[in-house]
Amino acid sequence: MPKINLRGVEKNYGANAANAVANLDLEIGDGEFMCLLGPSGCGKTTTLRMIAGLEHLTDGEIQVGSRVVDSVTAGVFVPPEKREMGLVFQSYALWPHLTIERNTDFGLRLRNLPKAEREERVGKVMKTLGIEEYRHRYPSQLSGGQQQRVALARMLAVNPEVLLLDEPLSNLDAALRLEMRAELKRLHREFKTTIVFVTHDQWEAMTLATTIAVMSAGMLQQVGTPNDIYDRPANRFVAQFVGNPPINILELAAGSPADLVVRARSYFQQRYAQIEDIGSVGIRPEAIRIVGPKTPVPEDAFAGSAEVSGILPTGGSWIIELSTAGEKLFLTTHQAPEIEVGAMVEFFVKPKTLHVFDGAGRRSKTADRLLNPAVLHS
């Protein structure tokens, strides 16, 4: 399967309009499952459509394997039907008057494949996706999850070099989405197709992708594995966008008199004075530990006290809200809490779990080196 390279890609819909995608450099590896993740309007679907050839570039170049498929400076544009890519939309786009079998082999008929080869491919892909028994039914006779499988089968049957998926699971209920995520992971392992998947759902990206590209306002924010994105967010936007419950942010640069902010400011000044320009500090909910009777507090930990203002069971885990002088912290635990709302508690956070951002919202490399010296950072 080919590698996809986007170099200096831009898309603008008018002279006075902001760039939908700005100066995008992105490499999608051979056989990779890449998720384009971000909020609505961040440019992820536009990027997918430019890769597919449904949108012309304003500037830049897209190369698939050794072939340039779109280049503004070279005047090259390969039409969508000649890019050997499969595209699955948010809507299933199935032909209502054709059976499931005919929907599945639609692309193969357009390519004039011999009947025997057509039947072999269709039979294999329908069996793989578990829709073989529905071959003589029509789309209206299937559930949403089954129709989504048919849309995927239609694309996989033509054996595309690249499979492009534009939020294909957003119309499904929670149970079906979970089932289809597992199905997509299995299909990626089996077919080893290069997949580019657009989603605004962080958990979808975290559970599916081998690599995630986070976008905001047309700009690429970070590219990395799901663990990279979560454990070492490149900036505040990524840190706050990925994570549920969201990361706790303490604004140290704002001069807030809140007790927790004053404690954090003092903690860094006394222990890590080498870190300059600390704008804010992020604390993941699972990193906060409440001090119990037998809980040793590490000497170098950031610690404080707060009132328990809420306990929210989520089924298998609990979210605990802590309040102190106008600041709130949310922590998560998988053990049933032995505290009640209104109780005063002590808590701590190990330094290696703190995320420090400068005044511009960028991750502090100096802080990474000092807070977690056991890990070598680039």
UniProtKB/TrEMBL annotation:
<dbReference type="GO" id="GO:0016887">
    <property type="term" value="F:ATP hydrolysis activity"/>
</dbReference>
<dbReference type="Pfam" id="PF00005">
    <property type="entry name" value="ABC_tran"/>
</dbReference>
<keyword id="KW-0067">ATP-binding</keyword>
<comment type="similarity">
    <text>Belongs to the ABC transporter superfamily.</text>
</comment>
<keyword id="KW-1003">Cell membrane</keyword>
<dbReference type="InterPro" id="IPR017871">
    <property type="entry name" value="ABC_transporter-like_CS"/>
</dbReference>
<dbReference type="InterPro" id="IPR027417">
    <property type="entry name" value="P-loop_NTPase"/>
</dbReference>
<dbReference type="InterPro" id="IPR003593">
    <property type="entry name" value="AAA+_ATPase"/>
</dbReference>
<keyword id="KW-0547">Nucleotide-binding</keyword>
<protein>
    <submittedName>
        <fullName>ABC transporter ATP-binding protein</fullName>
    </submittedName>
</protein>
<keyword id="KW-1278">Translocase</keyword>
<dbReference type="InterPro" id="IPR003439">
    <property type="entry name" value="ABC_transporter-like_ATP-bd"/>
</dbReference>
<keyword id="KW-0472">Membrane</keyword>
<dbReference type="InterPro" id="IPR008995">
    <property type="entry name" value="Mo/tungstate-bd_C_term_dom"/>
</dbReference>
<dbReference type="Pfam" id="PF08402">
    <property type="entry name" value="TOBE_2"/>
</dbReference>
<dbReference type="GO" id="GO:0140359">
    <property type="term" value="F:ABC-type transporter activity"/>
</dbReference>
<dbReference type="GO" id="GO:0005524">
    <property type="term" value="F:ATP binding"/>
</dbReference>
<keyword id="KW-0813">Transport</keyword>
<dbReference type="InterPro" id="IPR013611">
    <property type="entry name" value="Transp-assoc_OB_typ2"/>
</dbReference>
<dbReference type="InterPro" id="IPR047641">
    <property type="entry name" value="ABC_transpr_MalK/UgpC-like"/>
</dbReference>
<feature type="domain" description="ABC transporter">
    <location>
        <begin position="4"/>
        <end position="242"/>
    </location>
</feature>
<dbReference type="InterPro" id="IPR012340">
    <property type="entry name" value="NA-bd_OB-fold"/>
</dbReference>
<dbReference type="GO" id="GO:0055052">
    <property type="term" value="C:ATP-binding cassette (ABC) transporter complex, substrate-binding subunit-containing"/>
</dbReference>
